[in-house]
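Q: Hi! First time doing this. I have a protein sequence and I read that you can turn it into a structure. Is that right? Here it is:
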Amino acid sequence: MEGGAKENEASAGIHEPLLLKEPRKPSLQQRLNRAVSTNTTSQLAIVGSNVCPIESLDYEIIENDLFKHDWRSRTRIQICQYIVLKWTLAFLIGLFTGLVGFIINLAVENIAGTKLVITNKFMLEKRYAIAFGVFAGSNLILVTFAAVVCAYISPAAAGSGIPEVKAYLNGIDAPGILSPTTLIVKILGSIGAVSGSLDVGKEGPLVHTGACIASLLGQGGSKRYHLTWKWLRYFKNDRDRRDLITCGSAAGVAAAFRAPVGGVLFALEEVSSWWRSALLWRTFFTAAVVAVVLRALKDFCETGKCGLFGKGGLIMFDVSSVKISYHADDLLPVVILGVIGGLLGSLFNHLLDKILRIYSLVNERGPVFKLILACTISIVTSSCCFGLPWLAQCTPCPKGTMEECPTLGRSGNYKQFQCPDGYYNDLASLVFNTNDDAIRNLFSSGNPNVFRHSSVLMFFGTMYILGLFTYGISVPGGLFIPIIVTGATYGRFVGMLMGLASNLNQGLFAVLGAASFLGGSMRMTVSLCIILLELTNNLLMLPLVMLVLLISKTVADAFNSGVYDQIVHMKGLPYLEAHAEPYMRQLTAGDVVTGPLVTFSGIEKVGNIFFYLKNTNHNGFPVIDEPPISDAPVLCGLVLRSHLLVLLKRKEFLPSRTSSSGDPSQRFTSVDFAKPGSGKGFKLEQIELSAEEMEMYVDLHPFTNTSPYTVVETMSLAKALLLFRQLGLRHLCVVPKSCDRSPIVGILTRHDFMPEHVLGLHPLLKESKWKRLRLRPSMLNSVVRRPSSTQILDL
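A: Yes, that's right. Below is the predicted 3D structure, encoded as structure tokens:
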């Protein structure tokens, strides 16, 4: 990240973000020159698989004269319209997300099912080379399609999308992550990637898809497509979009797992940085709509009108028929599973971080190399899925089983593969199958001897490695299902080792193994617990699932952070954590913001505004009244860049430095200053001003936020961080403690709280961070204070 400083060799490496735009802080003169002569990007991050500039979202209410007039003029009917529209949009988000989730599942089941049926047909005819050609060729075509649309059309659609949604709800706006193009590519790409037998899931992409749907519905209309319904103007702000996208992320989980309550808790625990009770109601309503839609569509498909989409089309691993009875002696293997899950999960995160950094070097070379990487992984995956079953022995079909053996269809526990009649290949039942069917086979509890120990171990090693190397290629795909498959595999293996020594059967051990690996990798507890219970439809497992999740998370937290947190950091997204770093309590807000500011007068010359908008990237400018307008310098508030562009575009200028006498509500409406949708609104290049207009003035008072959030310069940086994050701010003004100075010291932005920036300003804090030294005030004062990027790096 910009302004970052490299850590010492002991702490460097995989813990640093991939993007360190400025490893060294420029001098004061260089910063001043850049502030007035260049227009560089304030922040870069990896979005999808491309490097893009990013900005911060602004959840603060802009209380200027125009806003106050708009609220005073709203009638009771308009307020009711706003409330009804919020619930209507929540309903539409649930409806469309449920439909999209069903379509993705329907397409995957039919495409993958047809591929496996044709391949099995050639296998029964002993035409093994043709069978492999059909299987590998189909996978390669599907993966190539997914990689092409992702690499060439919408790189932001790569990966699961959960880190990007999590960053957005934290206040980070990256280009294209919620655009219509990303939505379409996400849907098509996830169908191709999952149908192409890659070790990825469609659950993460569904969370991203739900967020995209919510964003499009909450755009507030579109002038481009003539969709500017008057009611939609209420949603042209970041606050309402944030709430809708939170509902969309919950709907995505509900559509992926048929887990409405789990979706709400996932949004609360994992992706959302800001929450309130009213939002809880709407997310729950949205998830409930998804559940009803999926249930109706599933009932329709049970009539046989959906092709190969059967009872397993929507992920539901029902183990409710299993009677659960356990005693104190059974808790020991459960504890062991939790420890194993924590160790394997932290190792998975560590290795994935290294692999993603290697992949980033490949992705930097362009779309062609992204395509080559994806095709290589596809060929390797197809070879493993088709080749590994040849290493397993053929097993005689059990007598008296209710299930068909060998299985002639596309799924089942007893796949024949290359075995003669009356025999089945247990490894083929796992690896030569879709991930969803493999999970159902692992969770099954009918026959404890259906799988050999060697087959389960080979499958575990294969899925663990493929999960590491598949995630990160330029296709949409999530981590939920690969982690569940891998965890269920070693859970089943532990159950096989326990045998009759435990009252729990092997299928339940597989469920607990999946829970342990999820907790060890993703570090979620409550939401994962409920999702697994809704998946398996067995409430009696609640105590065991809770225990294994708590143990696995505790063990894994001793080594590293959760997988999504690591990816957010690695991508360079300036995510604000819920807690401050310990060394931030040794600094004050004044220690971070000491640089010169660009300020405007209450009545400012047009030429000055145009000059600073052209030569800086500042998003907010302090407005200060000075004599003779006021007796002493007074901070009037903060005016936004987007509002200044509107004023210049409308050319409502004054011939002299005098206050405007007219009512601004007669010339402007709140819609004129509303945030644009997927577009960028006005650009400075679109504004043409004559030399005469440059000498005129603009009265900024009616358009200035007169009540920006401020902190005194002696407030600790840790306290300022918590205030900044919990209020969802983009700017936090720092005012002096004494009255004989300028009315504003600086502005804290998201960048000023980043560890790379803080440690770059105060190098001695590195020692206190890594060696646990306690800095004395004299040591802190001895550090040369260099002006920060207060506005130069204004996000």
